[in-house]
Automatic annotation (TrEMBL):
One of its GO terms (cellular component) is chloroplast. Residues 38-119 form the GHMP kinase N-terminal domain. One of its GO terms (biological process) is galactose metabolic process. InterPro entries: Galactokinase, GHMP_kinase_C_sf, GHMP_kinase_N_dom, GHMP_knse_ATP-bd_CS, Ribosomal_Su5_D2-typ_SF, Ribsml_uS5_D2-typ_fold_subgr. This is GHMP kinase N-terminal domain-containing protein. It is found in: Plastid, Chloroplast. One of its GO terms (molecular function) is galactokinase activity. Keywords: ATP-binding, Kinase, Nucleotide-binding, Transferase. Belongs to the GHMP kinase family. GalK subfamily.
């Protein structure tokens, strides 16, 4: 992708009708980090991307692309001593999700960006999507039988597309259920996680 702009806030997606256009993810991340460029300075970037996450397979390739470019931009736009690494991972994930939602037009949650931003080898992540906090959980041998956890990734041959995903449907279902609980059970329930079995 090649683009030039004197005002990054005026950048627009290459193809606003195609949320799967990968260059939109790069441009969106650039708009998130452009405010960090000191006034009066220009930013010329030439970058190549390579990876082994299959595109369109539902394995978060767009989040991996966003987070890798965001990490690249942070390397020369931010002072490495100004923030702790955990907070930086959280901020990066939030910026990447915001870019997906607002610039690219993908109605996604934050899980994929969080995993790419804060994931650690040998660990799962316990993510609190309300507070944006996370805890790495070591995936080792099971204490009862000394067997290793096994994670299988299988090719279902089902093409994943952001424009036809189920996420917006689930978000609406959760909102509808929350509203029903507020009306019929407790007006103070702000999300399904605050509902109890009582």
């Amino acid at each position: 992708v090649t683009f030039q702009t004197a005002d990054p806030s005026k950048l627009e997606p290459v193809d606003p009708t195609s949320p799967d256009e990968w260059s939109n993810f790069i441009m969106g991340i650039f708009t998130e980090y452009a405010p960090l460029i000191p006034p009066g300075n220009t930013c010329n970037i030439r970058a190549a991307f390579s990876g082994n996450v299959p595109l369109g397979s539902g394995l978060s390739s767009s989040a991996a692309l966003e987070v890798s470019f965001a990490t690249f931009l942070e390397a020369f736009l931010m002072d490495s001593a100004d923030i702790n690494e955990k907070q930086r991972a959280i901020d990066r994930a939030v910026k990447c999700q915001h870019s997906s939602n607002t610039f690219v037009g993908v109605p996604c949650g934050i899980m994929d960006q969080f995993v790419s931003s804060a994931g650690l080898e040998g660990c799962a992540l316990l993510i609190d999507c309300e507070s944006n906090d996370y805890v790495p959980v070591r995936m080792g041998a099971a204490p009862s039988d000394n067997e290793q956890a096994v994670i299988v990734i299988a090719n279902s041959n089902v093409k994943h597309s952001h424009s036809t995903g189920e996420y917006p449907i689930r978000v609406q279902q959760c909102k509808d259920a929350t509203e029903a609980l507020q009306k019929g059970v407790d007006a103070n329930i702000s999300s399904l996680r605050h509902a109890t079995m009582q």
